[in-house]
Amino acid sequence: MFRYSRCIVWLLLCVMMAGCSKEMSYEPTTEPVTGSPDPTGALAEFTFVPTSNHCSDATVSGVFEAGKAVPAGALIKVTVNVAKKGNWGILTNVVNGMLFTGTGVFTATGVQSVVLQASGLPTRGGTHAYLLKAGSTSCSVLVNVTNGEEEVLSDCYYKIVIDGKTYQQDVTEDNNYEAGSGLGGVDDVTISAGINYNTSGGEAAPKGTTGFGVTKGIMHRYVYATNAEFRAFFAPGTYTIRKDFRDGDGVSMGWLDAEGEEWDTESGSGDQTGSTFRIVSVTDMPNFVGTYYIKVKMTFTCKLYNRNTGAVKQVSNGEMIGIFGKI
């Protein structure tokens, strides 16, 4: 349990599950909304649905690296509500040498998605906000720019607070912790991400090291899923914490503490009254060996139960950035 290998290269077993895998090649995930210009020159009317000043369901695709031109296919996809058909265009502000633009024609009213393509050359790493405006509404989308390939992995971490004490583990190049991904099942599957100490030969992690994992299920027809469908399975939003996926789709979590004790949401009574789990953002990962990965930020509160005794610990202010792979 809680043993992970390098997330870009290897298949591994994740939080309390085993399965088989298949390496898949990257495919483009989405295309912009396009159409013939409205011959009347009419302008569309549409709005966003912001949440706390952030675009509620915006997703960012692509890896943005300081000092390098944005890659082909780097984009923001966001849902809008169209009140009047016609031509549309969105232009963000220029931040860190980069901006996002999109144009097209709405031929119908109602809820639909638009795509904004990235352009420019970011000059520095960090997380930067891009403002989108439509009619009377506006919202911002956060875009992460790395300082290089290694930073993509080094910003993976988990953090939980139990009884006022913070437990945190980051992934760095020299601490032997790794971010990994795992798969359980064949076609109806669970998919996991974890932050764990690297071991080899099947031995247990040494005392004093910790690990944390998140499993999401059930994804149906996984064998036939496109990259876009895989990514959509992790769409930003709230999800139910499950004791057993036979009770419904959702997520489960597990923690290996520094004493070697295992805690999870599937043991004990499994009661999660008052618990929360939210996917905050999803970002494409580099596709070095032909396998599609996404980096996902999650926040949560939950109850963790000791696998041996059933004792319970209340987790607050939980955070994790982990890697899920279409492996």
UniProtKB/TrEMBL annotation:
UniProt keyword list: Signal
Domain of life: Bacteria
UniProt KW Signal keyword: yes
Annotated signal peptide: 1-25
Protein name in UniProt: DUF5689 domain-containing protein
